[in-house]
Amino acid sequence: MARLPDRRAPLDVPRPGWARAAFVLPRAPDGGDAVYLAGNSLGAQPHAAREALLSAVDEQWAAVGVAGWEDCGWWATPQSLGDRVGALVGAAPGQVVVGDSTSVQLFGALIAAARLRPGRGVLLSDGGHFPTDRYLAASVARLTGLRLHTAAPDGMAPDADTAVVAVPAVDFRTGERWDLAAIVARAHEAGAVVLVDLSHAVGVMPVELDALGVDLAVGCTYKYLNGGPGAPAFAYVAARHHDVLDPPLTGWAGHADPFAMTEAWTPAPGVGRLRVGTPPMLSMLALDGALGVFDDVDLAGVRAASLALGDAFLAALPAGADVVTPREHDRRGGHVAVRVRDADGLCAALARRGVVVDARPPDLLRFGFAAPYVTLDDARTAARELAALL
Fold this sequence. Notes:
The strands form 4 sheets. A 7-stranded mixed sheet has the order 4-10-9-8-7-5-6, with helices on both faces. Strands 11-12-15-14 form a 4-stranded antiparallel sheet, covered by helices on one side. Strands 1-3 form a two-stranded antiparallel sheet. It starts with 22 loop residues before the first strand and ends with a helix. 51% of the residues are buried. The chain is built from 11 helices and 15 strands. It is an alpha/beta fold.
């Protein structure tokens, strides 16, 4: 069985691909490991995630059945797992909960954020946000009577009528990293609350939610956290908002005493009130196993390794390649996007050459640099294969 690095010796500065043996990589057409640069869309499978899933099925569900909610700690998992994710986004314990999809978490967070600023009329969102974020912002605006205004994150100008500022940490298309400190400062100066989508940031760079003063955040766990397809999302709410947080999805799992089955809904203390339905335990336990790759690893080192991979890729690209991602480290996320004429066709052609990336219409190829399993050779190979096709 593949082993993770010795946890008695913390990896303060992990090198690119330091945990490659801990993953199963997709097969290339020649039968070897593919150059897998799609971790910004779906992370590779950790051995530990598979082992955790098999254990949950064979040693927990099969062995104890319904008693697993207590005997195996299933009921407490959304918040205990939330603390593990919270450690990766700079959140003190008790502020993150895991469960449901990113869309569900985002819907609840948007409305809860708006309810923190009653009497204000504007929801300000990134005009280039991921589609789910844009669609849900429009729906929440209709439901709450807010007016939806859009702008690029670095050009937002919230005012006294702005209730919520909703931004991503990293642009899902271009890989540009936004200056969250500046965005939060402008929003708070206007009295608005800030909701950040961390889906393309968590696990590939340090994010200091508490230190930045972010109010709410959401994120998925199947990209750089390698939780598996459809792995549950997470939501963060700063502790200063817990006592007044009013979520719209008042499910039984977010009740202060869910098994009392009372007629009225009484919110659970703290972030637990964001829980909605019965936790999806198999996927949550797979995620719990997957997170082991980050144990005792400095996220600043993970960030440095990811940037080194991006640098190697950029250096190996042919002159004239249309790179739309900023090359500056402080403005770059975990993936690099290249504009091409036939993104879908080139994506398929690269796959036939053993290089797995993804395309975003109409003309972008995205190359994701998940540092735990991507090596410098992988990055250079991808650039050479793209150059050959171009």
